[in-house]
Amino acid sequence: MRRTFTYAPSWILTIALAISLNCALALGPHRTTVTAKKDTLNYLLGTKKPKKKSFLNLSFPPIKAGLFSSAKVTVQQPSDKLLSNVSIFPNPTTDQINLKYNVSRYSTVSVKLVDVLGNNVATLVPQQLVEPGDYTKTYAINSSRISKGFYFVKIMAGTESVIRRISIM
Questions:
Q1: Which residues form the domain of 155?
Q2: Over the stretch 20-79, which tens digit does the pLDDT of each residue have?
Q3: What mean pLDDT is predicted for residues 124-149?
Q4: Where are the alpha helices (DSSP H) in 28-106?
Q5: Is the dihedral of CA 83, 87, 93, 98 positive or negative?
Q6: Contact 79, 104 (CB under 8 A)
Q7: Does residue 91 share a domain with residue 39?
Q8: Which residue, 100, 88, 86, is CA-closest to 160?
Q9: Closest by alpha carbon to 110, among 157, 166, 164, 152?
Q10: 111 near 153, Cβ under 8 Å?
């Protein structure tokens, strides 16, 4: 005769051990059936025993159901951009380009006119050191050197660059 082993007795034993362990941990040392006597010295002096602190030291505000805050929080992030508020007008143009931009700190600035293929057509401002502030520049377009079409104005300040499209009629 061959004896077959079933897992049913081992599973029943495992579940019974888990339930008894869970009950033992749920009762814990603070819920024993033996009542301890209070410390009479602390009772007479009116002092309380210090509470045990959690090892995480976290404290959460009480949560009230159904309450929502209507306060708006705005966080201003510092602008790390070196070059901002770049605008080119009029667009389309025929005889001049007006360029307006803001530089946030000392840097070298250069402005170039580039065609659609990326070729440098004209250098409007050679590389020069500028102070922080707003700048407005006007550049005359030489019709003999620059033909009608679409171009890009590339403004480079330090390592940053901004590219804007412009149409020349």
A1: 83-168
A2: 877 777 666 555 444 445 555 555 555 555 555 555 566 666 666 655 666 666 665 556
A3: 88
A4: 40-45
A5: negative
A6: yes
A7: no
A8: 86
A9: 157
A10: yes
In a domain, 15, yes or no: yes
pLDDT of residue 138: 92
- Find out whether 125 and 47 touch, Cβ atoms under 8 Å: no
Could you tell me the end-to-end alpha-carbon distance of the chain, in angstroms, rounded to an integer? Answer: 104
Q: What is the CATH number of the domain that holds 108?
A: 2.60.40.1930
Please state, in angstroms and rounded to a whole number, the distance separating the CA atoms of residues 71 and 139: 49
Residue 73 lies in a domain: no
**C-alpha radius of gyration, the chain, whole number:** 39
CA 122 to chain CA centroid, nearest Å: 39
Report the number of distinct structural domains present in the chain: 2
The pTM of the whole model exceeds 0.85: no
Pull the structure tokens for residue 4: 């077959």
Q: What is the pLDDT of residues 85-112, one digit of tens each?
A: 999 988 888 889 999 999 999 999 999 9
**If you count DSSP H runs as helices and E runs as strands, how many of each does the chain have, helices first?**
2, 7
Please report where in the chains the tokens 């005889």 appear, as a residue: 95
Domain assignment of residue 111, yes or no? yes
